[in-house]
Amino acid sequence: MKETGAFFLDFVFTFALASLIYVSVGVPLIRPAFGYQEATDRYNAAAVDSGFVIEDKDGNFVDAPLDTTLSDMELYVQYETVEQRVFDYFTVKIPSSERLVYLETDEFNPKSSSSSGSEEFKIEVGKWVYKNVFLIKEGELNALWCLPSSEEDYKSMPKPSAALQADMNGADQEKKLAAYRTLYLGVVGSSADDTSCLWSRALTHFKSQPEILAAQEGRTFATYASLYPSIILSPLVFFLMFPLIFKNGQTLGKKICKIALLGNDGYAIKTPALFIHYAILILYFYLFLIPYPLYSFMGFCLILIVDYMVMILSKYHQSLHAMVARTISIDAENSIWFVSKAAEQRYIEHHPSSLAARIQKEESMDEMKKTGVDPVAFEREALGIFDSSTLGQNPYVKKEKEEGKEQEDSSKNS
After folding, report:
1. Residue 12 lies in a domain
2. Is residue 6 domain-shared with residue 79, that is, in the same domain?
3. Which of 32, 101, 263, 402 has a 20 to 30 Å separation from 197 between CA atoms?
């Protein structure tokens, strides 16, 4: 738990420093240097040309007003305003703007064939808009719109179908409301996510404009450029600078949680192992340098989950990066360690009654027991003490006698 808490603290510290660098350096200095404002101006200019946004009295660019707080009839009658904006975008705004164009996917470019002010041009554009935007096919009945009766009809936006017009002009209020609602849903849509409506098709076309795409790319590039110093420097501070300043490979979080980082052999961590241990962690954070926020965040979370699961399931509770670097984390408050084996031995020789000496003695005894050696007898022999009762006895003869007695007893029992 301490290890998890220490990493959480380090993550919070890293994020806080990254935010500070972004606000104090990225936004005021780096983002303008990479043309963020110029790209934003390009976007706003193209948006204003489209008629889909307006500049308010405070200089902010907002969606052209459509009051969604109204109810029933007052709300539905606004469909005509949206319909007019869509029709004007394709027939007036694009032809008259230097920033907006008909797309290659439109397979339509009347600008190259006729003057934008001519009657021929208006009819040509109107036919394309009726067919591809309003989805009115020649000779096919349409649930929302009337079929054009002459080429002159293509100069103005489509009128509601005869059935809807009859309901809209009739005395039955329920049918009238239903007709307006049908047109509203067909033009504006049931929600902002409705992609089947007229407004959604127009916005999709607008967002695919080369000028809009270039402006968005410029803003995205400038934004990421302003984030790079935060992403690069913050992990270096907390996962490299602090471990080099503090003793025993501690980060700020480890120091607060009183955790020390040692080598796999239980001795003080060496500089190469420290670099490897924290370089892997820093690389985790550098996943945010990938210019796709969703993928970089998912990758960061996934690798942290894998790292944490390895720590939980491994025998010595080592994380993935600790295994690679051959390091272990210990409780700094209740542990003792040395720089090297030689330093430990020298200390024990000068402090035979110390905790380190007792630990070494216990470990030696445990090892003897595993190999079948009697630690008490071994210690007696090492100190020159022996059992006088065994003088003159051959241990091998004694062993043979004991084995013979065991066989005799077993035969009697059988």
Report:
1. yes
2. no
3. 101
Residues 80 and 103 in one domain: yes
Structure tokens at 204: 């999709």
Q: What is the DSSP letter of 63?
A: E
Regarding whether 112 and 7 lie in a shared domain, the answer is no
Q: Are residues 77 and 133 in the same domain?
A: yes
Q: What range defines the domain where residue 166 resides? A: 67-187
Residues 271 and 298 grouped into a single domain: yes
- Report CA dihedral (76, 81, 87, 89) to the nearest 10 degrees: -130
Ordered per-residue pLDDT tens for the chain, 414 residues: 788 889 999 999 999 999 999 999 999 999 999 999 999 999 999 998 998 886 666 666 667 667 778 888 888 998 999 999 999 999 999 988 999 999 988 887 765 555 666 788 888 899 999 999 999 988 788 889 999 989 999 999 999 999 999 999 998 999 999 999 999 999 988 887 888 899 999 999 999 999 999 999 999 999 999 999 999 999 999 999 999 998 888 999 999 999 999 888 888 889 999 999 999 999 999 999 998 889 999 999 999 999 989 988 888 788 899 999 999 888 888 777 777 777 777 877 777 776 667 777 777 777 767 776 665 555 555 555 545 555 455 444 445 555 555 555 555 555
Residues ≥6 apart with Cβ < 8 Å to 71? none
pTM of the full structure: 0.70
**What is the tally of structural domains in the chain?**
3
145: β partners:
160
Tracing tokens 């960061």 back to the chain, one arrives at 300
Identify whether residues 263 and 283 lie together within a single domain: yes
Residues in contact with 84: Cβ distance below 8 Å, sequence separation at least 6, in sequence order: 157
- H or E element that contains 376: helix 375-382
Domain-embedded: residue 91: yes
Residue 298 lies in a domain: yes
